[in-house]
Design goal:
It contains 16 helices and nine strands. With 327 residues, the chain is of the alpha/beta class. It folds into two domains: 178 residues, Rossmann fold; 98 residues, no CATH class. A nine-stranded mixed β-sheet has the order 1-9-8-7-6-5-2-3-4, with helices on both faces. The structure holds 1,4-dihydronicotinamide adenine dinucleotide, (2S)-2-hydroxy-2-methyl-3-oxobutanoic acid (X2X) and magnesium ion (2 copies). Its cofactor is Mg(2+).
């Protein structure tokens, strides 16, 4: 059984005289900063000038450049985009690090693939929420949290894990459960998970499910309700009650059809491809491809995003979501 930390195992007081700099005020950064401030931790923000900077100010934070925030902090949470971290690290973070500081990542990418090499005299830890930033904040406000992983890459002070767990607690993660892992396990499973299932696999499955019905001549609105909107509600059943609970919460007809046809559609070939994709993560091929793509200006990423934005399913979805929200 994995080692799991809960609120009762963690002492927040280790943060009481510390200043935590949240670097980046985006999807994760904003959620972490608001959560930790609500937990009574002294937070400052380090970010470049722009929308995030203005928003952080509006929301009442002291906001600085990344360099200045690192200078003023004891603990830094590096919540910048993965592909931006290496250059900001060498230009603004590394020159301002001091002995005994604690450096937190929310994803192990740059450490696992060797793109950032921290000095020996700081702690380097990982607190990886297993949730999108919106849930990190929404769940905290609800009085609960999301699960997260914690790992120690470097323990210079002897307090690396304790400090990381305190930051996790201040974010509400230990209300749910924080599992101890390694940078390698977090990085690889996170990438494999988002590619095969959460982002890649799911999107493609929903899109094909929608398209097959539309191509057969059914109304796109009906296809959207069936293949996409209801997918959320079925996922909620799985989330609350498990796979068996979901199966017992749908009709007997759906249960039989699903259990027999599912493995025909998502077959062993798909599983083989999932293994291939996982191998490309593990051997560093995906990381190299993404770094190169990014260095060329992420043109392919922008083009692929545009294709999704302009697809029929998105137009239908936007209308229906608006309709369902009002009234
Ligand atoms: N998005 C999510 O829900 C999750 C993200 N993570 C990890 O969290 C980290 C942050 O990711 P996101 O929150 O998605 O990033 P983001 O793209 O939402 O936010 C980036 C922030 O960094 C700032 N920024 C960008 N370039 C900068 C620069 N050169 N100098 C100073 N500030 C700069 C932006 O203004 C923005 O405030 C990544 O390591 C990611 O893998 C982990 C779990 C989930
Ligand atoms: C939201 C999350 O955990 C992801 C999918 O791994 C990410 O945004 O990188
Ligand atoms: Mg993730
Ligand atoms: Mg990820």
């Amino acid at each position: 059984m994995a080692k799991i930390y809960k609120d009762k195992d963690v002492d927040l007081s280790i943060l009481s005289k510390k200043v935590v700099a949240v670097l980046g005020y985006g999807i994760q950064g904003r959620a972490w900063a608001l959560n930790m401030r609500d937990s009574g931790v002294k937070i400052i923000i380090g970010v470049r000038p722009g929308k995030s900077f203005d928003l952080a100010r509006q929301e009442g934070f002291e906001v600085y450049s990344v360099s200045e925030a690192v200078k003023r902090a004891d603990i830094i949470a590096v919540l910048l985009p993965d592909m931006t971290q290496p250059s900001v690290w060498s230009a603004e973070i590394a020159p301002n690090l001091r002995r005994d500081m604690n450096v937190i990542f929310a994803h192990g990418f740059n450490i696992r693939f060797g793109l950032i090499k921290p000095p020996n005299d700081v702690d380097v830890v990982l607190i990886a929420p297993k949730a999108p930033g919106k849930a990190v904040r929404d769940e905290f406000v609800r009085g609960w949290g999301v699960p997260a992983l914690v790992a120690v890459h470097q323990d210079f002070t002897g307090n690396a894990l304790k400090t990381a767990l305190a930051v996790a607690k201040a974010n509400g993660f230990t209300r749910v459960g924080v599992i101890e892992t390694t940078f390698a396990e977090e990085t690889e499973t996170d990438l494999i998970g988002e590619q095969n299932v959460l982002v890649g696999g799911l999107l493609q499955l929903l899109k094909y499910g929608f398209e097959v019905m539309v191509e057969l001549g059914y109304q796109p609105e009906v296809a959207y309700f069936e293949a996409i909107n209801e997918a959320k509600l079925i996922m909620d059943l799985i989330w609350e009650r498990g796979l068996t609970g979901m199966l017992l919460g749908v009709s007997e007809t759906a249960r039989y059809g699903g259990l027999t046809v599912g493995p025909f559609v998502i077959n062993e070939d798909v599983k083989r491809r999932m293994r291939e994709a996982a191998e490309r993560v593990r051997n560093g091929e995906f990381a190299r491809e993404w770094v190169n793509e990014n260095q060329r200006g992420a043109l392919k990423l922008r083009e692929l995003l545009k294709q999704v934005q302009n697809s029929q399913v998105e137009r239908i979805g936007e209308e229906l979501r608006m309709m369902m929200r009002s009234g």
